[in-house]
């Protein structure tokens, strides 16, 4: 039970990653011609969704219905 | 110029969704003379339907037009939609299952229903309901504006076409309730996904690749200047906190059948955030393609133009129809949500207590018509459109001030109703004041903090901070002196799934 609750904390990571623009307000490094500012935020849309799936999977493991 | 081939496809898709809207009345059949059936579709939607419903509800047609317009005009600031929709779902994952459960257990149709019981205060419930209605109405008007922007691109009479769109929207909402936008959302989202994926493949290819698109945009528009850092993140955070306080988001959430459905959607709805990010890039593509905004729609006209310039006519008709149909879904849900609020928290509470269930549903249906009529008026009467945009900006600031009464009250038992009311009043007053000083032109205000020149911050979030300080200080003092005024109707068990009913959800 303990671990199932603590896993929720990983959902704080996206907040830190995207609410602090100094981490990503830059043009370089580009990826496929896409500025860093833009691909970084798209990447975090994917990471954030993945983390939510992880939390859901851990917290609902073993429950039937 | 009238584009006949586009119009034929546009009208064909329009007729199709009209039929879908009326057929929806028979889908998962329930007694539509009850407000829980008409306004919440019986709280029976599973994961997939809820995904389409909330996706179609939150990512509105106006968003599809306005976000690229903001990127086109202001550059990187417009991309705040990305962090905003990235952080909203972790919040949804924790908060929304809890409010869904108490609403399900106690039969709440609106957030204000919860506030009334939680604080034992129909006055506070009324304030929360009126804030919701006020924030929703201009939002509906902007959906109608989204349709108008698309129709003008087709070259037909806006008045005539808007009246047809209104009649269709009003009738299917009246007849089918929330089932109609839910079923239409399946069609709408499919059209939107096809359109956006085609756009991000075809348009960059025609412009020489995505790299060439970004190379054609001034570098200043591709990243954020330090002066806007705080504005960018407060805008994202404030908008994320506000999104699920909007009545249409609450209605969409309450219609789901279990906590699990909501949690799964918190994991899968970010797909739409990615989609919205791609849509935002259309603003850069319009710059690269040399699109010029046309009066009176300004930058909002760039997306329809880009579609018409870069796509063959048959697909342009398809894409424009996708945006227009995209407006019908949120407009319908918003009008249902506003009607639910009026019916439950104004009519039943203040005008006619003891109203029968059948009459309750009838009042809600008529209220949904009135709300939409007002919205169409806003767009058709010359000069009022600008007010719709202004009020929608203010709506975001206002709805955020209901957070303590709705979300915080789910977790903190000692909140005092007088403190929450005072906090709401302070938040509404200061937020509106700063918007006024800004001439309602921007939701960022320069506050005398940080650097010598001040710092730009999102007005809604600063007003919310004042709000929460008042709420917490008042409640803490009231608690210390033993004078806390809070409701007694709810106990801890009301927030938990009922043991016997757990398997039936």
Structural class from helices and strands of chain B?
mainly alpha
Q: From the structure provided, what is the oligomeric state, counting identical versus distinct chains? A: heterodimer
* Overall structural domain count of chain B: 1
Percent strand of chain A equals under 5%
Provide the CATH topology of chain B: Sodium/glucose cotransporter
Beginning-to-end CA distance, first to last residue of chain A = 19 Å
Give a quick set of tags describing it:
heterodimer, A: 65 residues, mainly alpha, B: 505 residues, Sodium/glucose cotransporter, two-stranded antiparallel ribbon, 2 strands, 2% strand, disordered C terminus
Structural features, described:
The complex is a heterodimer of chains A (65) and B (505). Chain A is built from 3 helices and no strands. Chain A is elongated. Helices cover 54% and strands 0% of the residues of chain A. Chain A has helices at 2-6, 13-18, 36-59. With 65 residues, chain A is mainly α. Chain B has 505 residues and is an all-alpha fold. Chain B has helices at 4-23, 35-40, 47-58, 61-74, 81-106, 111-119, 122-154, 158-176, 179-206, 210-215, 229-243, 247-254, 259-268, 270-288, 302-310, 313-351, 357-380, 385-400, 403-411, 417-437, 459-480; strands at residues 444-447, 455-458. In chain B, strand 1 and strand 2 (455-458) form a beta hairpin. Chain B starts with a helix and ends in a 25-residue tail after the last helix. The interface between A and B is large, with 34 and 43 residues.
SSE map:
The complex is a heterodimer of chains A (65) and B (505).
Chain A (H helix, E strand, L loop, with lengths): L1 H5 L6 H6 L17 H24 L6
Chain B lengths: L3 H20 L11 H6 L6 H12 L2 H14 L6 H26 L4 H9 L2 H33 L3 H19 L2 H28 L3 H6 L13 H15 L3 H8 L4 H10 L1 H19 L13 H9 L2 H39 L5 H24 L4 H16 L2 H9 L5 H21 L6 E4 L7 E4 H22 L25
Antiparallel strand pairs in B: 1-2
Helix pairs in contact in B: 1-8, 1-9, 1-16, 3-9, 3-12, 3-13, 3-16, 4-14, 4-16, 5-11, 5-13, 5-14, 6-7, 7-8, 7-16, 7-17, 7-18, 8-16, 8-17, 9-14, 9-16, 11-18, 12-16, 15-16, 16-17, 18-21, 20-21
